[in-house]
Specification:
The complex is a heterodimer.
Chain A lengths: L1 H6 L18 H33 L1 H25 L1 E5 L2 E6 L5 E6 L5 E6 L8 E7 L8 E7 H27 L13 E5 L2 H10 L3 H8 L3 H14 L4 H7 L2 H31 L3 E4 L3 E6 L4 E7 L5 E6 L1 H6 L1 E7 L17 E7 H11 L16 H24 L10 H16 L1 E4 L3 E6 L4 E7 L3 E9 H5 L2 E8 L2 E9 H18 L5
Antiparallel strand pairs in A: 1-2, 2-3, 4-5, 4-10, 5-6, 7-8, 8-9, 9-10, 11-12, 11-16, 12-13, 14-15, 15-16, 17-18, 18-19
Helix pairs in contact in A: 2-3, 5-9, 6-9, 12-13
Chain B lengths: L37 E2 L4 H25 L7 H30 L2 E4 L3 E6 L3 E8 L3 E7 L2 H6 L1 E8 L7 E7 H12 L2 H6 L1
Antiparallel strand pairs in B: 1-2, 2-3, 3-4, 5-6, 6-7
Chain lengths: ~525, ~190
């Protein structure tokens, strides 16, 4: 430990052992944080606002007063937060003290750090500052963040921490086996292995919906926008009611299609803009043991992930992607599924947008060297999948429709009969997409509906296996198998019972006999 | 390396390369239906059923009390519908408890040198196996009912366990602690420190 604290902070000696403050520009970061908190709670304040509306209208200066009051509080709290914020690097760990009333002290040893993220919000970029976040792999509240450092010192700090880790691991290895390892010098070598052009990003915008990224910005104003446009429509003398009553059906149909295409076009453009904002200047680079992803037009994100921490590779292809031959490659780490709901999380993920299959294969080769995903023939799952869904989904709907038609014999509703047909077709498609394959070291899963997702699961990263069977599945000797990984659970439904059991015992054998680390 | 695309089955590994994964005998062995499965405490299904029925009964009594009490009258519509809705829920709940009872009778586990397996479910059967070398930590938990009846729950946590946890309920306390100690003394976990 003593040795550690000596060789760590070569760059900035003054931080050694002493608590230090971040740059004053960090106040902006705190202000942003507090504003987000206030905006998130606006919802609860709406009833109060509603009650006071008349009074506010009568005397708008009260509103101004409240507004400045809130703003003042926010700024005050931000300044105080900044004043109380202290950090130090001491005895091989990052320590952060923060909080005005509720003090928080985080102590994160370097060897527990999973990721180091460098983030540059737009207001930091002109001044060359960045915030450095250390992810402990545990809960989010245990994340340590150094709010405002100069970009170069943030980068050198990250470098030092990873070198420090690497050195420790190597010295540990030496202690164990006295093997000479020369990786020490390669740590700094960083090679860019993938970049994305604007064309690629536009393609990504077209094929994957990134509209919600923009919606997040627009959401607070959506009511105003709708109101504005509806006023406009009224102004143009557009009367939808009279059109629907008077025009022939085919014309209304055309209106609807035109409107639909119009919105689709807008959505696509917005999605492209969203994709470009998020992935602008995308680079994926590789050091000795890490992947580093950098991107972002407004807020610049930099995520570094140790390659050994990657649990699973997922190749997602929407139906448009299948036409263009592109795929989104995602390399998930710990608890990836838990954070999936949060759109912000996408920025912190190791995701490479709209790559070609060969690029995908090349990147994957660094992570899972022996994988065979690209020339694997998949086994299909049992046809029972179709029967099951037809029985539980299509049949009830069809019965319901029959009852409906028995009462309302309206010929205009015949189109509803397409529902069961379309559903059956979708179920069949889904069944067609399902597939799995396995070797001693990897399990591959393929699924999807119109698009297709492929999963590459390394066996030694599996945490737990479970097999489930219903009464009917047992009778026809079919079983479903589920693999639990640190990143989440992945299952193959309805395969041969004997295959499932064999797969389970082989996986268990691989895990238990090799004792390879999953981290 | 070729994938197993045709139905060629992999060789099931057994004691090769000094790898062994034999059954660990527990305090008192009781094997009933599955050859390797040990059932949980025989009292557990009954206790679990009793707790469920008591909860339903208590809610029903509170509900009936609300309707019968002379202090204030509930709106007629509300009374009419709430009785029927609660009746429906209670009926479904009872059915679920009955299924639970059947499932708990078939609840069991199997501790081997390298892994622990849990068998659960009745119509929907599930067998999950947790390799001991992937266990992050273990807890033996006892609720108030468990304490009265001398039972305990064994929680086994592995990495990334946010939604699906591995819990074996209804173990006798000594058995639960025996399993915990066996796992804690496993050499993989010992090495990891």
């Amino acid at each position: 430990m003593a040795e550690l604290s000596q060789n760590l902070p070569q760059g900035d000696t003054e931080t050694q052992g002493n608590w230090s403050q971040v740059a004053p520009i960090g106040i902006l970061y705190f202000i942003q944080n507090f504003i987000v908190i206030v905006l998130n709670n606006v919802f609860y304040m709406l009833p109060i606002l509603f009650l006071l509306w008349d009074k506010l209208k009568a005397s708008p200066w009260i509103a101004l007063l409240i507004f400045t009051g809130i703003l003042g509080l926010v700024i005050g709290f931000a300044v105080l937060s900044f004043v109380f914020f202290r950090y130090r690097l001491f005895e091989g760990s990052v320590e952060v003290k923060s909080g005005i009333i509720f003090k928080k002290h985080i102590n994160l040893p370097f060897n527990r750090i999973q990721n180091v993220k460098i983030e540059q919000p737009f207001y930091y970029r002109p001044f060359g500052y960045a915030s450095l976040a250390f992810d402990s792999g545990g809960s989010l509240s245990q994340e340590a963040r150094l709010i405002a450092l100069r970009l170069d010192s943030a980068q050198s700090l990250r470098q030092q921490i990873s070198e420090n880790k690497a050195e420790r691991e190597i010295t540990e290895a030496r202690h164990e086996s006295f093997t000479d390892s020369s990786t020490r010098h390669d740590v700094i070598n960083e090679t860019v292995i993938n970049t994305r052009s604007i064309g690629d990003l536009a393609m990504h915008g077209v094929t994957s919906n990134r509209v919600y990224l923009l919606l997040a910005f627009v959401a607070p104003f959506i009511d105003d926008i709708i109101e504005y446009f509806s006023d406009r429509f009224a102004g143009w003398g557009l009367n939808i009611q009279s059109h629907i009553e008077n025009d022939p059906t085919w014309q209304i149909g055309l209106y609807v299609i035109a409107l639909f295409l119009f919105f689709l076009g807008i959505m696509t453009v917005l999605s492209i803009i969203g994709a470009i904002i998020l992935f602008w200047g995308f680079t994926l680079s590789k050091t000795q043991e890490k992947f580093i992803r950098r991107s972002g037009l407004i807020n610049r994100h930099e995520v570094a992930v140790p390659i050994s921490r990657i649990q699973i590779a997922i190749m997602k292809q929407d139906w448009l992607d299948t036409l263009f031959g592109r795929m989104n490659l995602r390399l998930d780490q710990l608890n990836a599924q838990a954070n999936a709901a949060n759109p912000e999380a996408l920025a912190n993920k190791l995701m490479i947008p709209s790559v070609f299959a060969y690029q995908c294969r090349d990147i994957l080769a660094y992570v899972f060297p022996e994988h065979q995903l690209h020339n694997t023939a998949f086994l299909s799952i049992k046809k029972m999948f179709i029967t099951r869904f037809v029985l539980w989904l299509v049949l009830p709907i069809t019965l319901g429709l029959t009852v409906l038609f028995a009462y309302h014999d309206d010929p205009n509703w015949w189109i509803l009969w397409l529902t069961p047909v379309a559903l059956s077709a979708l179920i069949w498609l889904r069944w067609r997409r399902w597939g799995f394959a396995y070797t001693d070291d990897y399990i591959y899963i393929k699924k999807g509906l119109l698009g297709v997702d492929r999963y590459c699961i390394p066996v030694h990263k599996i945490q737990r296996v479970s097999i489930s069977q219903s009464y009917w599945m047992r009778r026809s000797q079919v079983a479903s198998i589920k693999f639990h990984l640190a990143s989440g659970g992945y299952s193959i439904p309805l395969i041969d019972e004997t295959i499932a059991k064999q797969l389970q015992s082989v996986i268990l054998y691989q895990i238990e006999s090799q004792a390879r680390s999953w981290m | 390396m070729a994938t197993n695309t045709d139905k060629k089955l992999l060789d099931v590994p057994n004691a090769q390369n000094g790898f062994s994964n034999q059954l660990i005998e527990t305090v008192n062995e009781a094997q009933i239906d599955s050859p390797n499965m040990t059932h949980v405490a025989t009292t557990y299904p009954g206790i679990s059923l009793m707790v469920g029925v008591v909860v339903i009964a208590v809610i029903s009594i509170i509900f009936a009390g609300l309707i019968i009490q002379p202090l204030f009258a509930l709106p007629e519509q509300l009374e009419y519908w709430s009785i029927r809705i609660w009746g429906g829920i209670a009926l479904l709940w009872c059915l679920l408890e009955a299924y639970e009872y059947g499932a708990n009778k078939r609840l069991g586990y199997c501790l081997r040198e390298q892994d622990i397996t849990m068998f659960k479910g009745w119509l929907f059967r599930k067998i999950s196996t947790q390799p001991i070398c992937r266990i992050q930590h273990i807890e033996v938990k006892q609720g108030p009912v468990d304490r009265k009846s001398g039972l305990a729950k064994l929680h086994v946590f592995s990495a990334g366990d946010l939604t699906q946890t591995f819990i074996i309920p209804g173990l006798e306390k000594e058995k639960a602690e025996f399993i915990r100690n066996t796992i804690l003394h496993h050499k993989e976990l010992q090495q990891r420190g």
